[in-house]
Each structure stands twice: as C-alpha cells, then as structure tokens.
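TL;DR need structure tokens for one chain.
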Amino acid sequence: MEATNHFDFEAVMRKLCSMSEVREGAEQFNSLPYFLQESLRPVKEGLDGLLRRLRLKDEPFGTFDGASDFEIGEFFSVAVQLENLLTRNHTEKKCLPKLPDLSAFLDHCCNASQYM
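>> reply
TL;DR here they are.
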C-alpha cells in the first residue's frame, strides 16, 4: 500500500512539473490532493484577505473556492450529456476540436475568455 498514507509530500511535489504530472501523482498517491489543498490554504487565505481590501468603483474584489469533487462530478455528468465523447482525460483546451458538440455549446453559450 502507499504510498497512499506515508509519503514525503514535498519530495513528491518537487518532481511534478506540470498539472498533468500532478494529476498522475494524485492517482499514485491518494492523499496528494488533500496535502496540496492544505499547503495552498494559507496562501489562498492571505490573497483573499488582500483582495477583499481592494475596491473597484466601491465594490470589493472577491475570490471563490474551487469546486468540490462532488460538484465536479455533477458538472461532468451534465457535460457528458452534451458531448458523449467526453472523458475525464479531456482536461485541456487542445482537446476541444475532438469534442464538436461541447465546442458548439461553449461557442454559443459561454464567454470563452472566462473559461479558457
């Protein structure tokens, strides 16, 4: 067994150079996503506090938490209804040409600059 419960988080993260490698690492080390989120929490909280003090036209800036695994699963189940070729491995913009129905939906219903 792991590797799942006993691993050196910092040593593993030093070896991962891209999001694709982090995703692969999360498959090998089940607790990697948790440790990654926890290591980023103080930075996110600090940036959130800083941004909330900033204002634009008397409106404070804000930040949002990332979607939970459940929310991502729900979104994915809806997205699969739009594009039956969609898999969880389609994680980059370069995959869109292979997904014509999803591409058409995004072109028609979304402001692409906000999502890509």
